[in-house]
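Chapter summary example.
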Amino acid sequence: MSARLDAQRLAFRALDIRGAGEVRLTDIIVRQLDVLGLPSSLLDERLSIELQVEKASLVANRPLAAILRARRNAGAKIVAVSDTTLSAQALAELIRHFHGPDLVDRVYSSADHGRTKRDGDLFLTVAEMENTRFDRILHIGDDLQADVRTPSARGISVVHVPRPPYRRYRRMADAALTEARRIGARRARVARAAVPKVENAFDFGKSVLGPIVTQFCLRIWLYAAQVETCDRASLLFCARGGIGIREVFERVLARLGLPLSIARENIMISRLIAARAALLVQSSSALEELGREFRGGSFADVAKALGGRTYQLSPEWQQPFAPKRFPMLLFGRSGSEVLADIEQQNALFVRHFAKLRGDAARIVFCDTGLYGSTQRLLAHAFPALRIETIQFARANYKGHGEEHFPKVAGLLVEQNYYSPFNVHSCVLRYWHLIESLFEPRIPSVRTFAEDGPDAVTANCGEIGYGSIDPSRGNSLLSGALSYVDSLAIGGGAIALRDAEAAWFCLKRAITRPTSDELRCLEVGGRSVDFGRSDMLRVLSAASPRPWLSRLASVRTQLWREGAIAREFPVLRYALLPMLESAYSLRGMFARQR
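The structure predicted for these 593 residues follows.
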């Protein structure tokens, strides 16, 4: 069931970003079978099961059928037109099941034609194939957009028959009850599952993170599989975190035998690189990003980061950085040297980017997350390109604009705050764990250089697939890869089952860590990045301090639960539940807002 729901949800998500076309149930079922390692010969049987479910769930609209049959007997042509994943053949079977063989003349399905009523193209197809002008068509339907506004704009007469409100609420209640049952069944399975004994980071990576990253990679595949059915596309894995993701992803494809022909490359990019490109088109998103990153710094600090070297600048550059004033300095006379370096660096990136994407009409970036700054900046820098991003999680922790969110998909988490009621959101409490899991020990991309007439290199070194081992010195990733390597054809079902228990183990380890888990999950220092060499520690170095001083320092820690567990080994049994309650209240108020 999880594989079926994931295949459908991600297919529609990929379609929504494309903005046109339709998802076919056949493709959804094929992907479900591939994930579970089941033979394609089961396709017809699975489709038959889907139709059986429809027949058991739907109720015949007898009054409407009587009206249509009377009109058809009077000589009118009755045509059924539907936005659906089902084929016209399947729809015709459902109509015959409920109303017999003499209700409609023909059936048109958006899944067959790749055109929809909501976009209006399917009406054009029907008019052409029925050799009928728009002004000779009367369309009846319940959807205000697809059945009324769109056909009306094309000169088609319409009759709006909205569904009674109580039906919507009844469906919502039924969906909530069904989901509650699924959650209950999932918790029962997790309760029966053996709790893995974790002695070191490798074991934690294998037993807990391994199933989770496999689930992530399966969702990447489901998304990419839909993209390649309708577009010529490139899947670009962003340095640095994308390098580790690519390593796991390719192994998952190989172990589970999942087919994917979409072009895939690792791309040398960072927020700094994307900010340069956006800044040159004077995008406000670049200024907003710089304002957040260099709060408390000077104009000269920003110039050093963007230009890649230290400059001898006039005194006005030593003043505190103010985003609104920066364009006047950069594009003015005093900033000419800095601007020249930014333009040179951006030209090298543009060359690198163009080579990797080739002739792709759709560019899909893959990264860790959270906010999607790279997506936001590149969308402004390259408005003519169709760029989208898929990532582990998506959250607006910065409080900036969300205009780019429709093209940023968090494949496992899409919410701004941790909620105890959503086990996947536990990663928002300790996001640095996910970043460090996938990032190899190489510097962030800052500067480019020419390497011959066609090639471009960067300070990070060669990052092409297979050129570096992202698991070197990374026990958590080594353990996760060991789990992937243990899978075989059909292992997708095992991984999805294991992931259910693994998520609850991860949540407990992050929100109420034991001393062993604290040792396994502490990731050490994290680079400030964005052209700077500063480092931040996830947990401050332990030192003898007064009780109140240690308590106050918890607020400054990047992993607060870990800090509490280390600083207060006895009081943590009271402090951690209190912290969990506080986050529960914040999540509830955030949903209300």
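To summarize the output: The chain is about 55% helix and 10% strand.
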